[in-house]
Specification:
single chain, about 250 residues, alpha/beta, Arc Repressor Mutant, subunit A, Rossmann fold, 3-stranded parallel sheet, 6 strands, about 55% helix, binds S-adenosylmethionine
Length: about 250
């Protein structure tokens, strides 16, 4: 049932209609390095300075900064009649690239990959298939071949996946009592985001991550340190219909 307010004024629909404008404003500020610069300078600075440091137009930057103030991603104060901008506490924690809790990698993935693919949502619904071919010129039937179309793209995806666990991993692990399991296999365990929370919550548990060889090699190099000794890796393929590796859990 709709409320009479909703029938009088379609606020929800207007919000849905404009949702992508909000997303793209935050994505753009992240990608251009606005939050990183403001974190680096550690004091409120004018739009002209920000535009010059980030090599953008002044007019465009002023509009972006004011939109970010409206979205509460930035703060502004007047000094000599000129707006000076700084990060909010939330932006410092989640939007600055160097923060341990940064969403930067997930945001840039959404901006550069997910956003582009969602442009073809009508085609995806009509055809019932992913739109990597239209979006990125990759015709593979295997979606992970498209996602991992280059080493650079694979790394971007892995950082994107890892970010999710830095935000909600602890809550997910603590939502269940998993203490009875001393040996855990994480199929498609990727960078070990879940595994790290597992071994830090349960002192006796070992986790074996099974993933594609290239992913395992990158995870070992860039995401899991030697100190995390209770995390092991297994290279292989699952669900391909090919009997390349037997996996017994
Ligand atoms: C959506 S990601 C999820 C990653 C991880 N479970 C997480 O939550 O962060 C799916 C994972 O499955 C892996 N994967 C996809 N197809 C695979 C296959 N045929 N064999 C092994 N791993 C595969 C990918 O490399 C990726 O790490």
């Amino acid at each position: 049932m709709c409320s009479s307010e909703e029938l009088e004024y379609p606020q929800k629909l207007l919000d849905y209609q404009c949702g992508f404008l909000v997303s793209k404003t935050m994505f753009t500020a992240c990608e251009l390095g606005v939050f990183d610069l403001l974190h680096e300078v550690q004091e409120p600075i004018a739009a002209t300075t920000i535009a010059s440091r980030l090599s953008t137009s002044v007019d465009g930057m002023e509009r972006l900064l004011d939109a970010c103030v409206g979205l509460k991603l930035l703060k502004v104060e007047l000094k000599n009649n000129e707006g000076h901008y700084s990060n909010t506490d939330v932006s410092t924690l989640y939007l600055v690239k160097s923060s341990p809790k940064t969403l930067y990698h997930m945001i840039t993935y959404y901006s550069q990959t997910t956003y582009k693919l969602w442009h073809f949502l009508p085609e995806a619904i009509r055809e019932g298939k992913s739109q990597y071919e239209r979006g990125f010129g990759i015709s593979s039937k295997e979606v992970f071949e498209a996602i991992y179309r280059s080493e650079e793209e694979m790394l971007k995806f892995l950082y994107h996946m890892d970010t999710i666990w830095t935000i909600c991993g602890k809550d997910i692990i603590q939502a269940f009592d998993l203490s009875v399991f001393c040996s855990v296999y994480d199929l498609g365990g990727c960078t070990g985001g879940l595994a790290k929370h597992f071994v830090s919550t349960y002192n006796e548990t070992t986790v074996t991550i099974m993933d594609l060889p290239s992913v395992v090699q990158t995870a070992k190099k860039k995401f899991v340190t030697d100190e995390e000794q209770r995390i092991h890796f297994l290279e292989g393929l699952f669900m391909t219909g090919q009997k390349k590796n037997a996996l017994i859990c």
